[in-house]
Amino acid sequence: MIQIFLTKPFMVSYCTLRDAMQSGQNPRLASLLTMLSRVLAKIANCVYSSAATCGEKVMYYCARWLMRRAKHVCSNCALLLCSVFMFANLFIGILLLAMRDGLVDEDEFYYENVRKHGHIVLTRKKTLEQQECVISEEEAIEYPSCLEKMEWMEEGWQTHECYAFYGVNGTFCSYRIYLSEIEKHCPILPWRKTIKDDSAVLFENEALSVERDLSGLFKLMFDNELNYKFIRTRITLLWPKWLSAYDELMIKWPKTVSSRRKFNIIIHMGFLSREAGFKFGELSSTGGPLGELVQWSDLIAALYLLGHNLMISTEVKTLKKNIKKIDYKFPCPIQNGEVINLVFTDIVGLRYLRGKMNDLFNKIKCTIRVLDSFGTHAEFNSQNYFTTHKNSLGGSGKNPWGNHQLDLQQFMTMFPHTDDNTFLGFAVEMHPVNQDIRRDNVTLVYGKAGYMWKNAKRLIETVRKFTEVHATVSDNLPDFDSLVINHGVLTGSELHALMRKVKIFLGLGFPFEGPAPLEAIATGVVFINPSFNPPKSRKTSDFFKDKPTLRELTSQNPYAELFIGRPHVLTVDIDNSSQVEDTIREALLSKPIPYTPFEFTILGMLQRVNILVSKQNFCHVTHFPPRQAMLIVEAVSMQSCQDACRQHNLLCERSFFRRLNMPEFLNKSRLCAVINSISSPYAPYECSKQGNPDLYSCASVPTVPSIRRICPCRDFILGQTALCSSCL
């Protein structure tokens, strides 16, 4: 307000009066005003150099009024009247100026949108204390969206009143405080006293209690009875084990359980919708694929048991109703907790959200988790990169399951095969096994659909030299009627009862990476795992030609091959009869005990889901995994970071790439004349930093021998690869 009394508006009044008097209305008064205005101009210009428009108008009309009255009075009276008016304004202005220093907000900053050496230049209107609100180059790398959000706030903070509610007032520091303490896109200022831990939620959500009664869960599954038949059956069967696992989790890791908060979680299984047309729900009881249904069942059970508020759908109509329950009119976080915290869906559901509900998708993009059995690689996540390089990526040249441009860790896999993605997994159905039970020389074939048996006759004939061969196939097998005993489609409990009587579980090469081999191993059966040479990939298999991954499967179940192995898993070329015979003999002689890796137990999955839901966050920067978990490894020529880390018994941690993308890591040799910014899945490496964060990649193998990748690795808990030792 001080600008109303001093500077330009103040001078306007004098100039208006002076000009009027000089024009002949009152020459004597005009000359006096001219002299007085020169003195006051010097005073005013020393105080401020600009003025508010509204102040200018006020003073202008006051001066005009005074001028009109001066025509009807003597010069001395007019001069006295003007002097009183002007000196009153001057006195008030000086008084406000003196008070100004005591009224300045601690946050009253302005900034020039100029970048110098990776900083935003920041200055004070009148510096009282040096309180830093700058964003350093290191902070900009650690918090990659901070600068962009700060720039948006400068123009956009008045687009909704909720920003002002959180204290945003148009000053640089108010943007910084909001973006660091409310939305957490920026680091918290060191001089702010109310620092919250990264793992804290924005608001104190309702504390959780365990949900032990399934009736509440099943009321949420209503839009298509067939779609939920398998899910309900599996959850009901395993529910006592889930409850026991929760009690054990509370005993072993009480802090990780008691600190959790209640989230609103939307679960949409798009692959079961009518629009998808896959009919997985209908086929689940007649020999259809069950792998995805197993994973969804276990995820739903874990989230419900942990006490979260679930909204479940398999049809688009129900999805829309569930979304309407949450008010998304506010661009800011809402204090009452009515916000979508997480969305679990699949690629089908993701494509629907992007295509038909794009506005909502853009708002909730960071909350989405995509169940993606085979994983997604960086080359297929970026539409621009895929379009430019599709000829060198093999396959069909199409990318129907990719181009989503999410953080790669938002894709959640069935097995821990891709370090770029997050391992969600499933729980192996385990039953007590009597070690004294007599097992027959029986081989149970892994292949419940007739097409899986194509070209398998020679293999089955070889196996029959040593054991009976049993099957659980939904179709007739006319070519194998004299070779196998077919039980038809069995329920889960019937299948496990049969597994407890056999010695061998024989793979036919398909389906890839299903849950059944781990269930067989859990009952003490030897799994014969078909090897692939050449490996199955986009370039060698029709099944993978459209998949958004460059993975190369060396066997039907690479996890069983690499992480379990002998005596539980025997990997062999099933087209080589002599190798098959040797493998059958070895399997019949071995007596493996039932075995399940911890990460595939119900307790292991419950622990993992609890940590991932509580700590993994893509809406703002968090320190999960903790920074101290990072270990740097330099890959050899033509080696991926995933392989480089595993050579040191570590895993590649994609979220750490942004910490490595800095000069001190990229110019250790001191030989780089300049550090180039490139958009490549191989960056960062010596003298080259990553220009596109979407292309950070653990799995990508350089095609240029001179490139040696710089890799961020971490350790992992034995039997729980998704979590580092300091992640709990």
Topology summary:
Blueprint: H1 2-5, H2 8-25, H3 27-47, H4 53-70, H5 75-103, E1 109-116, E2 119-124, H6 137-142, H7 146-156, H8 161-165, H9 172-181, H10 215-218, H11 225-252, H12 254-258, E3 264-268, H13 280-283, H14 291-305, E4 309-313, H15 316-324, E5 342-346, H16 347-356, H17 358-364, E6 368-371, H18 378-381, H19 383-389, E7 411-413, E8 422-423, E9 442-446, H20 457-463, E10 468-471, E11 485-486, H21 492-499, E12 504-507, H22 516-522, E13 526-536, E14 553-555, H23 558-564, E15 569-572, H24 577-589, H25 602-615, E16 631-634, H26 641-647, E17 651-652, H27 657-660, H28 663-666, E18 676-678, E19 688-690, E20 710-714
Parallel strand pairs: 3-4, 3-5, 5-6, 6-7, 7-8, 9-10, 9-12, 10-11, 12-13, 13-15, 18-19
Antiparallel strand pairs: 1-2, 13-14, 16-20, 17-20
Helix pairs in contact: 2-3, 2-4, 3-5, 7-9, 11-14, 11-25, 14-25, 16-17, 20-24
